[in-house]
Amino acid sequence: MTEYFGRKYVEVDADFFAPAAALVAPRLIGCVLHHDDRGTETAIMLIDVEAYGGGNDRASYLHPENRSRRNGGAKNLTPHGTARIHGSRDMWGLDIVCGEEGQGSTVLVRAGLPVLGIDIMAERRSKADAADRVVKDRARGYEKRLCNAPYNLGEAMGLCPVLDGAELLRRPFRLLRPVDPVAGLLNGPRVRVTQDVDLQWRWGHPDHQAWLKDKFKKDSE
Asked: Which of 100, 147, 181, 205 is the most buried (most CB within 10 A)?
């Protein structure tokens, strides 16, 4: 058993990811994800996630209407409990595959609270010419901008396409859940989707709204 922020944590098992994404997503809030990049370790607490339902969800990249787009929609998904790395031009985001294999049920990790390796994250987020100036200068509050959106998180954590399909239960990843689940979760519609916009499939940590680029609306709290 491990402790973070005074809370007890245990490692998840494969059954954790077996339900559909809309059931797994709220349980991911408060979990801690580690990534060991050849001996360089970073970790975040998951504080903002969205569920996507595959072929029945018109906002999903696996819906028939979206499969032909340049978003990896035609790619078969790996079993639940694995990572789907998506993006382009060295900007990569993380989906967690859930549910039955081939159903396209995934959770998008939107934002995280840095737990381990803040200096490493800041260095990674400072390399590009167009890097966030607040992060690059280590200005006041820069920590809140390291992992505040999907691709920022991916850059800070050192995610890359070679990790696509990697199991989250073994190196280079490690995922732990709080023994006592986070209560009073924020809940609302997903960000910047144009289909199935009424689905309330986004969840957030009630104590860390300030660490999100896309804030939850007041009526979601």
From this structure: 147
